[in-house]
Amino acid sequence: MARDQLVVLNALDVAKTQLYHFTAIVIAGMGFFTDAYDLFSISLVTKLLGRIYYTKSGAPKPGTLPPNVAAAVNGVALCGTLAGQLFFGWLGDKLGRKKVYGLTLILMVLCSIASGLSFGSSANGTIATLCFFRFWLGFGIGGDYPLSATIMSEYANKKTRGAFIAAVFAMQGFGILAGGIVALIVSAAFDHAFKTPTYHENPAASLAPQADYIWRIILMFGAIPAGLTFYWRMKMPETARYTALVAKNARQAASDMSKVLNVEIEIEEDKVQRIAQEPANSFGLFSKEFAKRHGLHLLGTTSTWFLLDIAFYSQNLFQKDIFTAINWIPPAANMNAIHEVFRIAKAQTLIALCSTVPGYWFTVALIDHLGRFFIQMMGFFFMTVFMFALAIPYNHWTLKPNRIGFVVMYSLTFFFANFGPNATTFVVPAEIFPARLRSTCHGISAAAGKAGAIIGAFGFLYAAQSTDPSKTDAGYPPGIGVKWSLIVLGVVNFFGMLFTLLVPEANGKSLEELSGENADENDGEKQASV
């Protein structure tokens, strides 16, 4: 039998949706807005970095980043994010969500600014400095994943908790959109101010000296939204679930939530101490008890996030083909350096507006009606179907009359990623684990996702190269080709469906009911099978 829940936690569970919920969404969501802006804005300026630092005199085409440099510039922040997810996830359970939340934000603001101020006496020196600061920027961003999700889940009521956590994650879509818009504005202003010929007309004159400011401004802008929310993050009280169940301070938990909910809440010090002393609420992450109760749950959240991000981050494989197919981006030699940034930003903004953002908000609207399990299973199913539909008749899609069909199929694949596992893999780990391990387990799940992202972004960049050595991109060895890469990604998504079966449905249940923290000792066996 489940025992009575703490009054302060029950008050949060049954609270009507009110202003503090939306305040929490905005405060946590602006962190995710900044995360997405910082992670995805680098792709807007890599072509410009190639032109500035790697153009060779007399070459028929403008310079591009060598494969190893491109991998470092694009991937170092993902590596930092993985490390930050593990470290700050653990720290959030040790020191509290609020204390660590401020640290991650300070790191993000400082490293965003420092990225734009990267310097060096040579091209490689500047890129190395940029990579150093991008790693630590990623480290701060990594902390935002477990902390934002955990804070929102612990503040939310159980009726609309899924929508609130998904809304925080959906701010990622607006961050990607904002990155494109900032790049559009900055590049348009510089293009208007400094008229230069195309590379084909005059290679030397096509790169205005002032273009070096563009990538710096775009990267540094990420510090602004993060800095704006710092004051409000520090004003947020610690979550009642951490204060009561982990710090074991019933008085502080009741006091904080009385102010937040504007109601008088009973202080239950004896009950908090009694709950804390029970063996069911004291086992650690590496204990047999955790493995019995939550081992399969953790396997489910880590594996599905890992598999999802392999497919999700592989989208970089096809963007250049899609942009060229629908004539969004002309050949590099037919543009000057600044206009190329404008065209890339325009293409990415349109994709975010038409595919990325709507998918996120479909999840927000429907997650508490359809449930996490259904949305995740449906998303993986359609991603599998569309990947195979692109792969099996791949030669058909490469023909010019069929390219628009390829774009539509591609867009649907990533619509169902966002209206599917891309959102639910973020939501569920913040709900199903005990409060004392919640941030840690979310961090482990998210880090598994970032490991998948690194494989998706870079492993498939090499794998998708043509089997014919004469047709590979400059500097890359032959691979298995795009068709077989798509087939492999379809299989990855299918395995995502299978591992989703390990993830429990959290819809409509309290966090303590899901984690077993309000279950009596003789109810432990039953909880282990939930």
UniProtKB/TrEMBL annotation:
Q: Which UniProt keywords apply?
A: Membrane, Phosphate transport, Symport, Transmembrane, Transmembrane helix, Transport
Q: What is this protein called?
A: Major facilitator superfamily (MFS) profile domain-containing protein
Superkingdom of the source species: Eukaryota
Taken from the UniProt entry, a GO cellular component term is: membrane
Q: What are the Major facilitator superfamily (MFS) profile domain coordinates in residue numbering?
A: 24-508
Q: What parts of the sequence cross the membrane?
A: 20-49, 69-88, 100-119, 163-190, 213-232, 373-392, 404-423, 443-463, 484-503
* Higher taxonomy: Eukaryota, Viridiplantae, Streptophyta, Embryophyta, Tracheophyta
- GO MF term list: phosphate transmembrane transporter activity; symporter activity
Do you know which Pfam families this protein is assigned to? Sugar_tr
Family of this protein: Belongs to the major facilitator superfamily. Phosphate:H(+) symporter (TC 2.A.1.9) family.
PROSITE patterns from the entry? Answer: MFS (PS50850)
Membrane protein topology class: Multi-pass membrane protein
Q: Does the keyword Transport apply?
A: yes
Where is it predominantly found?
Answer: membrane
Range of residues in the leader sequence = none
| Gene Ontology process terms (BP) | arbuscular mycorrhizal association; cellular response to nutrient levels; phosphate ion transport
User: Where would you find this protein in the cell?
Assistant: Membrane
